[in-house]
Structure formats: C-alpha cells, structure tokens
Amino acid sequence: MKSRRDGIFILCIVFIAAVLAGCGAAEQRPVLGKIEYTNLNDSGSRTQENLISVLCQERRKKRFLIHGRKKNAEIQQKHK
C-alpha cells in the first residue's frame, strides 16, 4: 500500500511540474506573432524604390525637354 501511495505521489509531482512548465510556454507565444518576413518587406520596399526612381526619371526627362524647348525658342528668336 505504501508503494502505491509513493507512486501516486510521484505521479502527482510529475503532473504538477508538467503543468507549471506548460504555463511558461504560453508567455513565449506572443513572440511568434511578432516575426516579420523580411523577404516580403524587402521586395515591397524595392518595388517602392523602383517606382520612385521611375517617377524621378520621368520628371528629369520632362524638365530636360522643357529646358531644350526654351533654348531652341531663344535661338530661333535670335536668328529672326
């Protein structure tokens, strides 16, 4: 009878230890929600950078053409 009580006591201790160890794992789960996928973020930022670069190139082209047209107009007025 005593060995049965000892077995039940040890089983209860192991069960309590397992429950307490499981409680600590719940605190670590929110960290999993904070993981960011950098490959997705990087590709998104590269896309945005590419769009900005294209827009800047278009603006430069427009400014260059406007500047060229003004210079051509000035030259034509001088030769009249």
What does this structure look like?
By secondary structure, the protein is an all-alpha fold. It is 91% helix and 0% strand. The chain has helices spanning 2-33, 38-78. The longest helix has 41 residues, at 38-78. The radius of gyration is 37 Å and the shape is rod-shaped.
Identify the notable features of this structure and list them briefly:
single chain; 80 residues; mainly alpha; 2 helices; 0% strand
How many distinct beta strands? Answer: 0
What is the number of helical segments per DSSP (H or I, 4+ residues)?
A: 2
Q: Taking all residues together, what is the mean pLDDT? A: 76
How large is the share of residues in beta strands? under 5%
pLDDT below 50 for ≥5 consecutive residues: which ranges?
Answer: none
Radius of gyration: 37 Å
Shape: rod-shaped
Helix content: over 70%
Question: Would you tell me the structural class of the helices and strands?
Answer: mainly alpha
First-last Cα distance: 123 Å
Order of helices and strands: HH
Largest sheet: none
